[in-house]
Design a protein that fits this description.
Number of strands: 8
Distance between the termini: 37 Å
CATH class: Alpha Beta
CATH topology: Rossmann fold
CATH architecture: 3-Layer(aba) Sandwich
Oligomer: single chain
Radius of gyration: 18 Å
Strand order of the largest sheet: 3-2-1-4-5-7-6-8
Order of helices and strands: HHEHHEHEHEHEHHEHHEE
């Protein structure tokens, strides 16, 4: 009996991952049509989507949402970013804001579509309790100002459990009644094991039920990594481990809050 050695097993797995990525890229048009069925407008096209990524701190956009941003930009969607703090926990707010703009440029979001909120009641602090009504009003105002029809943010566990992340989710869920025409999606928080097995997690993300699944290949990963490296103030040793092993550098899965597209997968 011929037994595959370790290197052959790894190679076989990588080939299957590559086939999974390229095979389902062709389903993109159908997926977009399913999205547009729940949104007002004409026939589905990437240009019909005005997406808003809502984050709490500079670096959230690439640490957690890079695959989504990269894929939406590839589809010619209009992607906006609303960051609800400057990340001034260590008095580096101005520097971190510039790092955010640099990161967004790498990901394909121009500075004109990036908004960073600097409000004394929204500090970068895991012990601070952000006002749900304040955050909600900021998000809703931004959605209306830019005619946003798709909003993506954290789920109730906030990926890392950070209080500022979960506050964003609470604020968005509290805004449902005034956002009837928006597709609202929350980034799924996974367990510790799944979170740190890098691209090995891709087949599992594909098989498990989700409303939206965004996967990037090797080129997209290099782009996401380059965006992460723009955040020089945050590049402590464990960040490099995160860049290498976090599944959020390769794949994002979303659930509805509670409206939104069903069974949508972007490849």
């Amino acid at each position: 009996i011929y037994i595959l050695n370790t290197s052959e097993l790894i190679l076989s797995y990588l080939v299957s991952i590559k086939c999974l990525y390229y095979r389902h890229r062709r389903t993109l048009v159908k997926s977009l049509k399913r999205v547009m069925n729940v949104l007002p407008g004409r026939e589905a096209d990437g240009a019909d989507i005005t997406a808003l990524i809502v984050t709490a701190h500079p670096d959230d956009e690439c640490m957690f949402f890079a695959p989504t941003i990269i894929r939406l930009v590839e589809l010619n969607a209009s992607v906006h970013l609303l960051c609800l703090s400057e990340g001034n926990y260590y008095n580096q707010g101005a520097q971190r804001k510039q790092e955010l703009l640099n990161s967004c440029a790498v990901l394909g979001i121009p500075a004109s579509r990036v908004t960073v909120v600097d409000h004394k009641k929204l500090p970068d602090d895991p012990k601070a309790e952000w006002s749900v009504s304040l955050v909600s009003s900021v998000i809703v105002r931004h959605i209306r100002a830019h005619s946003v029809n798709m909003v993506l943010t954290f789920d109730g566990r906030g990926v890392s459990g950070h209080a500022n992340h979960t506050a964003v989710h609470k604020a968005l869920t509290g805004s449902l009644s005034v956002l009837p025409d928006c597709c609202l999606l929350s980034l799924v928080t996974v367990g510790l094991l799944r979170k740190y097995i890098a691209f090995l997690e891709l087949p599992l993300s594909w098989l498990l039920s989700s409303c939206l699944c965004c996967i990037i290949g090797s080129q997209g990963y290099r782009q996401a990594k380059a965006a992460m490296l723009c955040h020089r103030t945050q590049l402590l040793w464990f960040r490099y481990l995160y860049i290498t092993f976090s599944r959020y550098m390769f794949v994002n899965t979303f659930q509805m809050i509670p409206q939104g597209p069903k069974n949508l997968k972007i490849y």
